[in-house]
Amino acid sequence: MNRIEIKIFVIFILARILDLGSTYYSHNGKLDFETSPLVRVFKLDWTGLIFINILFVLFIYYLLIKVYCDKNLKLTELNFKNDIHTFMDYFSLIYYRKKINFKDLLTSKAFNSNIFKNSFILIFPLVLSIFSFIVSINNFLVGNSINLLSGIKHTQITIILSYSLIIFMFLSLYIYNLYRYYKIKKSSFKST
Predict the structure, then answer these.
(1) CA atoms within 13 A on the CB side of 156
(2) pLDDT digits (tens, 9 = 90+) for 150-188
(3) Which of 72, 109, 127, 128 has the fewest CB neighbours in a 10 Å radius?
């Protein structure tokens, strides 16, 4: 396990603890106003929530330790380093192993899903941690009688957060790839 995976895992654990703690604080230990589908749909109590969160932490640990491997990405980047001149070059060479235009990018079947999976595994716990921190801030505000979301139904909050999470996930994947591209450009600039 590399330093980055350890940092991501620690951030994820802290985010989950903060989320549960702020939920407990905001409603004095009651789950009556909790918007989570685990409570609303599956009727879980605190024991069930803590158990599910432990399973979720173990799942993220498994993904980061056993499944995640950035060696393929680093090797692919190294192989194509001299051919990468734009972000589109980077994206197409890393994920499709050849330079393609945007139209072909949408229709090509030669997608390198292994590299995408590894990028997603690295980004997924970070995005969930950010959302946990946002929810925790709201919970602390609710605990102090400042409810920013008082006019919105619980189901609407869940839907809004779910769609926001999906959009933020893809945006984060884009930013991560942009970061990797600029990292290659910076290293190739230093070597010349």
Answers:
(1) 5
(2) 666 766 777 787 888 899 999 999 999 999 899 888 877
(3) 109
- The domain limits of the chain are 3-191
Position 120: which residue type?
F
Q: Which two tokens stand for residue 43?
A: 């009727």
* Residues in the chain, total: 192
Q: Model pTM?
A: 0.81
pLDDT of 81-97, one tens digit each? 888 889 998 988 888 88
At residue 116, does pLDDT exceed 70?
Answer: yes
> What tokens does 57 get?
């932490």
CA trace torsion 103, 162, 8, 24 (10° rounding): 170
Cα–Cα distance measured from residue 83 to residue 172, given in angstroms and rounded to the nearest whole number:
25
The rounded distance, in Å, linking the Cα atoms of 121 and 117 is: 6
Q: How far is 178 from 175, CA to CA, in rounded Å?
A: 5
Q: Please give the DSSP secondary-structure letter assigned to residue 99.
A: -
Provide DSSP, 23-55: HHHHTTT--TT---HHHHTT---HHHHHHHHHH
- pLDDT digits 0-9 by tens, 10-59: 999 999 999 999 989 887 888 877 777 788 788 889 999 999 999 999 99
**Cα 139 to chain centroid, rounded:** 21
Reduced to 3 states (helix: H, G, I; strand: E, B; else coil), residue 159 is helix
